[in-house]
């Protein structure tokens, strides 16, 4: 096809048409591969370009420009582009073509193929030939992009053009409305201001820019350019604040805006002012300073919203900072700063002394904002204001007023920190030549704060303010020294330990926690010791009068131990206390709960490290330390207790907590550390090798044996197996067990668990084995081990009707854990075994247990075992797979099964549903709803509760699916809450759950669906309001009120 | 031993039932409710059972507070919180009720409506403190004759005298007013004070020489015009006899008394109130007209379960003179027979 | 909202222990829990004041001590204390309490609502209005009023 034909197609074919695009493509590639030069193209286009029909001409140009913008640039030699630029510029007066022409020029510039001398012609021609604002948006956009490119690539050349460029731009931009173009125009203006000499045009330039202030643009709902009002605001602000030249014009106008407009626009004005002040400089700002103060004060006092107050205070800070930079001519006369502050103080002081103190805090904030801007400002304001504030602080007798003034003082303290730094700021960041003006006041401030913090007044906020003051003092650089620190801390402790009021206490605690970040040493030395001094040593008899309850004390310890440097020593002391607890014969309940409280505090502290990101936690040091100083001692303690066959350290209460501690430490440990711990564990627990125990422990142990994993061992001893399981189940998969034959080991553990009689032991062992199998990489090895006898043993055990039900259940229980391990990693064998369990749902004696089993398989254990947290092999979507495998079987089982079987199937189902990602449920929901609804009729409370929980969960995500069934759901729910009969399984908790679901409906379903149900529901809930149980009534009232508030779209 | 036997329980309203009106000539009654509807209940001549024969629910946008049949039984007037009063006509053949006219004018809730003995006048009252007197002109036109604005607070009920063109009104201002006409000029001829709280209900006896009133002060009071012209003081201006309280039963109910009905058939008085009770009171025979004695002969507790009883009405038909209708917050209307064994 | 009658009211410390302390019998199905003043208080304490973004409890308008209940007579008396004696919101506040209890208590309870003695200039008028069931019924058919009431009650819902 000849070039001419293609040109013809391009010209004649409709825009957006395929052949047009094709034609263009072919021409472009011809150019790219050099078979066609631009000059030939132009020649061939000739007739089009000279055509009398303006639109043909435009299209001709369009073709050329399109080729330019889409071709690769190597064909664009300097002289070619020179010709093209010339060609384009000559035609600029051909109005209909302008759009296409600019497109071409833009392409050339973008390709950076234009020599500067040519570039120079572009703007002058553009400005002279084109009245930009008469063209459409895209054309204008193109023009601005060209100007921007010119400034990027040919700045020097453009500067050479100087004033003409500026005036041209001013004309071009004048009247621009489109946000996209404006954003660019603002950018261009900024460049001009910064790199051109605008002195001559300052006023015009300012006028053409400032006329857009304040920006009121709101992006259209279907905005595709994503330009926000803020983008424009910022761009405009950058222009306005770009040069000192604007100050003369800007200041009066900004003030005028401040006075007139309000809300967002006002904030914009204030933020602009904040940006301009430093640039415009003291000369420009000073004349207006007092005016501004007035308007800003008005804004602060009117308190439209906090953002505006912040903006206003920001402006004050900026203004003061600017004035601070004024060079003082002679020391004889007052500097602008002094004059300004003198005025500000004079204007504010009466608010701080007025008896009502209505505006005291706000005036305080304004002065503080000024003070925080520079060293001289801080000195002036503090010296001028603080004395009288402190004066009254001590004088005032009304607590609330004192508090207000104290707040002002505290604000000053934090302003001081801004200027002079905190105790922990690096020396290089602050200039020590500056001495804080607060220094001279510190004693008095400290006194006042302490007085307030210890005030007997019933008005707690006063005490809290006092505490805030103390902490500010403690944190401030240059202020408190040795003895004063003692005093301050002393008060914090006083409040922490003695104050009867919760809020005051927690204020003190928060203060200490923040202090612990900058001065851990202080907090450790004093606070922590203070707290522990309160904790009883030895048996926990309530003889010694306690200021605080154990819980409170330990709670404080926990909070403080967030700080890394504190948690190790805290743990150590907790352990010491634990050692002191009388744990054997004659240990009282008090001792048990004390030990429990201590242990769980340790647990909290250790688990908290886990929540921190690695780098913050410096986990490895901490955890290896903890393994030594916490895990081992506890392990030995448990061993001795177990061998001693009794005492509180053999109770599951304590051991479960310790197990969690072990698990948490394991979770944070490296492979190496884990292996170390594990080796120790297996030696003592499996091999019964007590020789590894430390001397002291061995002597205590004496001759008594320790075999916590043996089925014969007494219950107290085997409870220790919890610790064993905790360690095994938290191992990383890379960990190698220090044992000759893994299979024998597992075999051994399994057999023990099958023979064991202690529920704890059974589960510990089963879980341990399951966990190991789950983490084994080699799947064939896993099936190999299982199918080599042990599985069949368990299976036959389960199905052996001759055996006592209890044993059959025990076998099933073990089986369940194995299945879980396999299903998690989607091991094929897992599903084979799973169907056995599903089958058992119809078993008269094991049905219920099987249903529970399904629960275990579907849910994540609370102790985090069999989750990724404990490095379990958890396949993606394994739950979905589990679900789609079970649901059809459950549905059939339900339809065909006996009444009892139905129940077990439903129970199993509800377990599944509750543990499933909601989106998975939704697909299956329609077929399941009938089952769920019918389970609300069955007399089993557990089942009902489970189902109701399911509904509760599903309502938030699948209201659509439920909507069709809403009526029948409501009916069965109302039946439950109106019947109130425990006989039919509607226990109070079932009733409450039902009411909760009813109450959730209005939140998530369409009014159209609910409206017809409303009257009936309101009526029937009446009877629920009269439920014999108060807790149910509370729920009923809440639900009924929710329904009253359901008023539909136009509820007027 | 007198008692009330439950004859029928009429259910159908979906909100509290406010008041009841018996048809003057048929075994039929109308009840109105917070559900914005009026229900017409009829006795089946065959098995004597009662059932709902029609529901009027298209005229009012809010609670219908009270309803009344015209003396000829052809019209039914309904007063509603929507500030309007509707008049319905009964189609002779179909027995269906159609809205004939809507009387607008009150500023807000209309609380009671009553037909005069002749059927030529209609009275309504409202929270706007006014009582309006309407004249029936022609087939379906009603013209306001007078707007009476002498009550200081909202007017709770209006009741025409059984024979004369004399109107009584009870109010939230604790008073009862008697209104008379003097060639087209309606005026307040007397104000009955004595109740210490809102007067909720009033009713005349058969001859109209006595008026009973019940109140939030839990008393039932009896009034009669003082006709002994002995002392001029007892004469209002325009020489109308003054009504004076001739008897008061204190603490008749434990809470507010909402309604009183004085049987035109057997002279018995029934009251109902917020204490869930219905009482029947009888005037002792042969007592001095100016100091009559009364005794409570029936005291029925929980007439509507645990709910307030809002309305009570004796049936005006001779053969059903012992029938008493009550309505309550439980959305139910009950019919009782007074029996004395 | 523009010019509030009581521009800056005193705010009171609300009782720290939120709600009643659970007792074992609360969970015991065989024991029937009688209604008591605390339960009533729980129902109304969180109602929002029509003027301020504060609850009636925070403004000390409602107090448990001002609630009495007689379970044999099924009678409840709730008294409340307007923030200022000329508070024009008193009736509205009372109405909110009335509505909240209408929606939350079994029908059998007869509820009287009054401003506590001497706490309001037009005590009698307010009380009379609050306890006139006809007035209340009419008020609740006024959609604008109902909207205001519902707003005040929205804060009583616990999600």
From TrEMBL, chain A:
It comes from the Eukaryota. GO terms for cellular component: cytosolic [4Fe-4S] assembly targeting complex; nucleus. InterPro entries: ARM-like, ARM-type_fold, MMS19, MMS19_C, MMS19_N. GO terms for biological process: DNA repair; iron-sulfur cluster assembly; protein maturation. Gene3D superfamilies: Leucine-rich Repeat Variant. Coiled coil: none annotated. Keywords: DNA damage, DNA repair, Nucleus, Repeat. Residues 42-301 form the MMS19 N-terminal domain. Signal peptide: none annotated. Key component of the cytosolic iron-sulfur protein assembly (CIA) complex, a multiprotein complex that mediates the incorporation of iron-sulfur cluster into apoproteins specifically involved in DNA metabolism and genomic integrity. In the CIA complex, MMS19 acts as an adapter between early-acting CIA components and a subset of cellular target iron-sulfur proteins. This is MMS19 nucleotide excision repair protein.
TrEMBL record, chain B:
InterPro entries: CIAO1/Cia1, WD40/YVTN_repeat-like_dom_sf, WD40_repeat_CS, WD40_repeat_dom_sf, WD40_rpt. WD repeats lie at residues 10-42, 57-89, 103-136, 148-179, 192-233. It holds the Pfam family WD40. Keywords: Repeat, WD repeat. CDD domains: WD40. GO terms for cellular component: cytosol; cytosolic [4Fe-4S] assembly targeting complex; nucleus. One of its GO terms (biological process) is tRNA wobble uridine modification. Belongs to the WD repeat CIA1 family. Essential component of the cytosolic iron-sulfur (Fe/S) protein assembly machinery. Required for the maturation of extramitochondrial Fe/S proteins. PANTHER family: CYTOSOLIC IRON-SULFUR PROTEIN ASSEMBLY PROTEIN CIAO1-RELATED (PTHR19920:SF0), WD40 PROTEIN CIAO1 (PTHR19920). This is Probable cytosolic iron-sulfur protein assembly protein 1.
TrEMBL record, chain C:
Keywords: Chromosome partition. It holds the Pfam family FeS_assembly_P. The keyword Transferase does not apply. The keyword Transmembrane helix does not apply. One of its GO terms (biological process) is protein maturation. Residues 38-112 form the MIP18 family-like domain. GO terms for cellular component: cytosolic [4Fe-4S] assembly targeting complex. InterPro entries: FSCA_dom_sf (IPR034904), MIP18 (IPR039796), MIP18-like (IPR002744). It comes from the Eukaryota. Belongs to the MIP18 family. This is MIP18 family-like domain-containing protein. It comes from Spizellomyces punctatus (strain DAOM BR117).
């Amino acid at each position: 096809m000849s070039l001419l034909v293609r040109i013809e197609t391009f010209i004649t074919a409709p825009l957006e048409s395929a052949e047009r695009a094709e034609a263009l493509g072919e021409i472009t590639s011809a150019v790219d591969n050099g078979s066609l030069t631009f000059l030939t193209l132009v020649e061939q286009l000739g007739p089009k370009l000279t055509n009398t029909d303006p639109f043909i001409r435009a299209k001709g140009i369009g073709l050329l420009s399109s080729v330019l913008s889409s071709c690769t640039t190597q064909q664009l030699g300097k002289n070619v582009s020179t010709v093209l630029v010339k060609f384009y510029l000559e035609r600029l007066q051909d109005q209909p073509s302008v759009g296409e022409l600019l497109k071409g020029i833009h392409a050339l510039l973008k390709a950076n193929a234009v020599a500067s001398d040519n570039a120079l012609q572009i703007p002058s021609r553009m400005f002279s030939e084109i009245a930009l604002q008469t063209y459409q948006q895209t054309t204008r956009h193109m023009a601005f992009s060209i100007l921007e490119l010119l400034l990027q690539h040919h700045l020097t050349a453009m500067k050479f053009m100087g004033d003409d460029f500026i005036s041209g731009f001013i004309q071009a931009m004048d009247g621009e409305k489109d946000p996209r173009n404006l954003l660019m125009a603002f950018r261009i203006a900024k460049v001009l201001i910064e790199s051109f000499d605008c002195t001559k045009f300052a006023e015009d330039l300012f006028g053409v820019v400032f006329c857009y202030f304040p920006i009121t643009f709101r992006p259209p709902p279907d905005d595709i350019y994503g330009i926000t009002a803020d983008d424009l605001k910022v761009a405009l602000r950058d222009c306005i604040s770009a040069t000192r030249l604007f100050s003369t014009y800007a200041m009066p106008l900004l003030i005028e805006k401040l006075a007139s407009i309000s809300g967002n626009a006002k904030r914009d004005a204030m933020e602009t002012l904040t940006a301009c002040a430093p640039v415009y400089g003291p000369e420009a700002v000073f004349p207006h300073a007092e005016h501004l103060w007035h308007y800003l004060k008005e804004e602060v006092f009117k308190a439209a919203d906090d953002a505006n107050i912040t903006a206003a205070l920001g402006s004050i800070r900026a203004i003061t900072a600017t004035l601070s930079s004024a060079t003082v001519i002679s020391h004889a006369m007052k500097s602008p700063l002094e004059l300004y502050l003198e005025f500000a103080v004079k204007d504010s002081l009466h608010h701080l002394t007025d008896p009502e103190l209505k505006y005291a805090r706000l005036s305080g904030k304004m002065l503080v904002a000024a003070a925080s801007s520079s060293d001289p400002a801080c000195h002036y304001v503090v010296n001028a204001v603080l004395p009288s504030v402190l004066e009254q602080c001590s004088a005032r007798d009304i607590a609330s007023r004192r508090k207000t003034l104290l707040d002002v003082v505290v604000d000053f303290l934090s302003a001081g920190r801004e200027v002079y730094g905190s105790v922990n700021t690096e020396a290089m960041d602050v200039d020590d030549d500056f001495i804080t003006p607060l220094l001279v006041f510190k004693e008095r401030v400290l006194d006042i704060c302490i007085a307030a913090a210890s005030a007997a007044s019933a008005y707690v906020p006063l005490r809290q303010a006092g505490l805030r003051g103390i902490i500010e003092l403690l944190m401030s650089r240059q202020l408190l020294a040795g003895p004063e620190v003692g005093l301050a801390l002393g008060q914090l402790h006083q409040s922490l330990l003695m104050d009867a009021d919760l809020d005051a206490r927690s204020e003190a605690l928060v203060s200490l926690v923040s202090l612990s970040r900058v001065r851990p040493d202080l907090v450790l030395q004093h606070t922590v010791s203070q707290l522990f001094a309160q904790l009883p040593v030895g048996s926990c008899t309530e003889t010694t009068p306690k200021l605080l309850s154990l819980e409170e004390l330990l709670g404080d310890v926990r909070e403080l131990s967030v700080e890394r440097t504190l948690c190790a020593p805290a743990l150590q002391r907790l352990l010491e206390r634990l050692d002191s607890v009388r744990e054997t014969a004659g240990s009282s309940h008090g001792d048990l709960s004390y030990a429990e409280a201590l242990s769980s505090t340790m647990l909290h502290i250790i688990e908290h490290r886990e929540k921190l990101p690695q780098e913050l936690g410096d986990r490895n040091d901490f955890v290896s330390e903890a393994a030594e100083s916490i895990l081992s001692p506890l392990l030995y303690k448990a061993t001795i207790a177990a061998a001693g066959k009794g005492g509180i350290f053999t109770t599951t209460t304590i051991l479960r907590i310790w197990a969690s501690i072990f698990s948490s430490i394991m979770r944070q440990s490296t492979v190496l550390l884990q292996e170390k711990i594990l080796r120790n564990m297996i030696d003592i627990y499996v091999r019964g090798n007590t020789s590894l125990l430390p001397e002291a422990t061995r002597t205590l142990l004496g001759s008594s044996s320790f075999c916590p994993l043996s089925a014969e061992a007494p219950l107290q001893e085997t409870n220790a197996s919890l610790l064993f399981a905790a360690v095994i189940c938290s191992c990383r998969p890379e960990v190698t067990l220090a044992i000759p034959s893994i299979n024998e080991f597992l075999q051994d553990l399994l057999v023990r668990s099958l023979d064991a009689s202690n529920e704890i032991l059974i589960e510990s062992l089963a879980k341990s084995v399951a966990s190991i199998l789950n983490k084994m990489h080699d799947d064939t090895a896993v099936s190999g081990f299982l199918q080599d006898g042990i599985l069949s043993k368990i299976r036959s055990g389960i199905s052996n009707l001759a055996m006592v039900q209890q044993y059959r259940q025990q076998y099933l229980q073990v089986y369940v854990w194995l299945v879980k391990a396999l299903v998690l990693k989607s091991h094929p064998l897992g599903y084979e075994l799973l169907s056995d369990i599903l089958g058992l749902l119809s078993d008269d004696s094991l049905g219920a247990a099987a249903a529970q089993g399904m629960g275990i398989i579907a849910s994540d254990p609370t102790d985090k075992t069999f989750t990724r947290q404990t490095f379990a092999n958890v396949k993606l979507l394994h739950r979905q797979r589990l679900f789609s495998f079970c649901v059809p079987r459950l549905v059939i089982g339900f339809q065909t099964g006996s009444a009892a079987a139905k129940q077990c199937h439903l129970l199993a189902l509800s377990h599944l549903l509750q543990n499933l990602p909601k989106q998975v449920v939704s697909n299956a929901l329609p077929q399941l709803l009938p089952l769920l609804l019918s389970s609300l009729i069955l007399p089993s409370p557990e089942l009902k509760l489970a189902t109701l929980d399911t509904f509760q969960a599903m309502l938030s995500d699948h209201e659509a699916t439920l909507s069709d069934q809403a009526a029948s759901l409501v009916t069965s729910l109302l039946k439950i809450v109106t019947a109130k009969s425990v006989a039919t399984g509607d226990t109070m908790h079932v009733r409450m759950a039902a009411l909760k679901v009813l109450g959730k409906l209005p939140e998530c379903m369409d009014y159209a669906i609910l409206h017809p149900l409303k009257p009936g529901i309101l009526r029937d809930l009446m009877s629920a309001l009269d439920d014999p149980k108060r807790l149910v009534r509370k729920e009923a009232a809440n639900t009924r009120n929710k329904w009253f508030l359901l008023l539909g779209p136009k509820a007027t | 031993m007198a008692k009330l036997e439950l004859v029928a329980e009429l259910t159908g309203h979906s909100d509290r039932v406010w008041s009841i009106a018996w048809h003057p000539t048929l075994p039929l009654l109308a009840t109105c409710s917070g559900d914005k509807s009026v229900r017409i209940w009829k006795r089946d001549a065959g098995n004597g059972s009662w059932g709902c024969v029609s529901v009027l629910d298209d005229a009012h946008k809010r609670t219908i507070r009270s309803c009344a049949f015209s003396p000829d039984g052809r019209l039914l007037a309904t007063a509603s919180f929507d500030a309007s009063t509707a008049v319905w006509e009964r189609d002779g053949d179909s027995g269906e009720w159609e809205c004939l006219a809507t009387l607008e004018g009150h500023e807000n809730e209309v609380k009671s409506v009553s037909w005069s003995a002749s059927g030529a006048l209609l009275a309504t009252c409202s929270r706007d403190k006014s009582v309006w007197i309407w004249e029936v002109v022609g087939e379906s036109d009603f013209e306001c004759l007078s707007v009476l604005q002498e009550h200081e607070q909202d007017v709770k009920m209006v009741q025409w005298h059984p024979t004369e063109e004399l109107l009584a009104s009870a109010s939230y201002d604790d008073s009862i007013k008697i209104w008379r006409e003097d060639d087209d000029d309606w005026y307040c001829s007397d104000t009955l004070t004595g109740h210490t709280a809102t007067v909720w209900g009033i009713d005349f006896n058969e001859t109209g020489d006595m008026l009973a009133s019940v109140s939030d002060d839990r008393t039932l009071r009896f009034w009669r015009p003082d006709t002994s012209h002995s002392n001029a003081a007892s004469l209002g201006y325009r020489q109308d006899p003054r009504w004076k309280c001739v008897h008061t039963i204190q603490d008749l109910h434990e809470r507010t008394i909402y309604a009183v009905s004085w049987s035109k058939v057997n002279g018995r008085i029934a009251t109902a109130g917020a204490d869930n009770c219905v009482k029947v009171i009888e005037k002792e025979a042969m007592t001095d007209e100016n100091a009559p004695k009364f005794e409570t002969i029936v005291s029925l507790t929980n007439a509507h379960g645990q709910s307030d009883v809002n309305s009570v009405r004796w049936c005006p038909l001779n053969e059903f003179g012992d029938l008493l209708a009550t309505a309550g917050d439980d959305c139910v209307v009950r019919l009782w027979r007074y029996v004395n064994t | 909202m523009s010019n509030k009658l009581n521009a800056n009211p005193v705010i009171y410390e609300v009782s720290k222990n939120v709600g009643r302390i659970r007792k074992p019998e609360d969970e015991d199905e065989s024991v029937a829990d009688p209604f008591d003043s605390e339960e009533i208080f729980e129902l109304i304490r969180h109602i929002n004041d029509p003027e301020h973004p504060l609850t009636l409890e925070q403004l000390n308008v409602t107090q448990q001590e001002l609630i009495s209940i007689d379970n044999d007579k099924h009678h409840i008396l709730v008294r409340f204390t307007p923030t200022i004696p000329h508070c024009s919101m008193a009736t509205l506040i009372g109405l909110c309490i009335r509505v909240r209890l209408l929606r939350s208590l079994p029908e059998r309870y007869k509820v009287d609502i009054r401003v506590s003695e001497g706490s309001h200039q037009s005590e009698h008028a307010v009380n009379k209005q609050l306890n006139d069931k006809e007035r209340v019924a009419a008020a609740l058919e006024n959609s604008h009023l109902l909207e205001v009431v519902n707003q005040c009650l929205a804060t009583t819902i616990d999600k």
